[in-house]
Amino acid sequence: MLWRTHIRIVNEILRKLGxxxxxxxxxxxxxxxxxxxxxxxxxxxxxxxxxxxEHVVKARMLFLDGNLPEACFHLGVALHYIQDSYTSLSxxxxxxxxxxxxxxxxxxxxxxxxxxxxxFPDYDDRREDYMRIAGWLxxxxxxxxxxxxxxxxxxxxxSFWGPREWGKPYxxxxxxxxxxxxxxxxxxxxxxxPKLDEELQIALKEYEEKAGGVEIRFANEIMDFVKRxxxxxxxxxxxxxxxxxxxxxxxxxxxxxxFQVKRKLEEYREQKHLKEVLKExxxxxxxxxxxxxxWYVYCIPxxxxxxxxxxxxxxxxxxxxxQIEKTTVRDLIARDRIFCYRIQDExxxxxxxxxxxxxx
Length: 360
Ligand SMILES: [Zn+2]
Hints:
3 domains
């Protein structure tokens, strides 16, 4: 495609997007849209999917960063390859130069479908091919995946040998214009994606609930061990035959329980159980965010693992973080309203049990 055609197309896009033709953005877009021909990294009509993707994403990142002129430059580079891919007559054809002249002189139109109908009244398969692409370019396009798909789709009717496969110069230029416009509009679209933000919030809620469940289960396990340990301790005092043997066995059981309780408490304090959930949450977030990376501005919400959400609390923590007097708690323990879990030199209570009694 001729330089002046590339420039004509991007000037039309600048106009449609509301940029002034003499703005720095316009200058950089025009710089970008002709530079691949200076680089001479031919062929431009096909096989440029990777550079197209790179430059479209780079343009979007610079736009998110607020650097509009440089975003325009990279968009321009991508548009060059995209526009070239819509030239349906091969550069190897001896008619190529004349074709490009005609492309340059062709009028712009917004109505691709009408243009296709008018151009191919008697060629059903040509018409259907172009209609399908016209329909695709006419759909609402947003987001990284669909924009990159559109940007790297091979141009219609590209052919090296068969003259019957040609489109028409005015078809080429109008398809190139429409594709360039749709892609440019997407690159300069909203920086935030409400659907993505919502998905992140849904994941946060789901994993906060999961963390809550895991916390209660883990704390319950510890409390269960403590109760079993205390139980075996109590049974040591009971009279009966084989008392000595039984006590020996209970002492042994007690040791095991004590060991388990201590180990569990260590794990609990290191928040091992919650770190697992956090890891799963981060994997999930990665999967949610991956398709949109470098395309939207988003904030990954953090799961808070504060003391206030813990199920097993020491008496100090109860008074500090829940603002409940130690004496109130001690009183509840003394009246057997809540259970006191003793682990080594410390005393713990269950937050749920406490909440139950306080709400009565
Ligand atoms: Zn080129």
